[in-house]
Amino acid sequence: MIKGDWGSTHLRLLRIRRGEQDRLTGPGIARLTSSPAETLAQVLSPWAESLSEGVLLCGMAGSQSSLHPTPYIACPADVGAWSRGLSSVPSSEYPTWIAAGLSCQNFADQPDVMRGEEAQIFGALELDPSLASGTHCLVLPGTHSKWAIVRDAEIIRFQTFLTGELFANLTTRSSLLIDREENAGDGQDGFTCGLGEGGTNPLASLFSVRTAQLVGDRSREWARGYLSGILLAAEMAEAVRLTGLVDEITLIGDEDLVTLYQAAAAQAGIRSRAMDGQACVMAGLDRLAGFIERIPA
Question: Fewest C-beta in 10 Å: which of 1, 98, 144, 232?
Fold first, then answer.
């Protein structure tokens, strides 16, 4: 079976043949230039001989504007509850299933949703069974960062932070970054400085991203790192305040982004460990695939 995670920015597909992993990538749901069905067919065309085995997708493939709408399963939810929202795509030329998302009232007592991150969380529980007992805080950095509380293999509650999307918009659509090639400072130094500012006064610190370049002789790259540090420190501080029980987190995601979050966690006095996001999502989809035979034809 082909398994994949279709997010806002990327489509990532995996199959295993003769014990070897093959991968394909494509555009995310927010970057499509053709319909979701046409895009998926085009990306999958090199694997035409495997399509009869079926395709299992999680993430934005189940959103209202995507391949086939799937429901949100209310938390608390374990993998069995998640599997009950699994849907087949009726008009597909080959067997296609899409995982449900999850919903909850978050720590701010507001409605919240996730699509795709639940596969990573349940996959992490498969890869590390110690996470399936007791209470744990799992953090999934990304465009929309998720902080989830897992208790005895159930996702109890989670909180979304718009940190990644906010960073993308502020670096591309705001006045904060300017071109001053003669200025000094690298991105890592700026990030470290930002971590020291964002945990206490994030909004008051944002305009200093610009003024550091105008009158502080800081480079654009330094300022970009500084902005990143401010936003991540602000997320850490707000997450601790909202959840009220964070002293250790498990970070799940891409290595580069997880490394930044580990630095922010250390600055906030939070212990952290890391797990590979792609390994977790595929482990979660492997677990979900076991429920497909139970879906009525």
Answer: 1
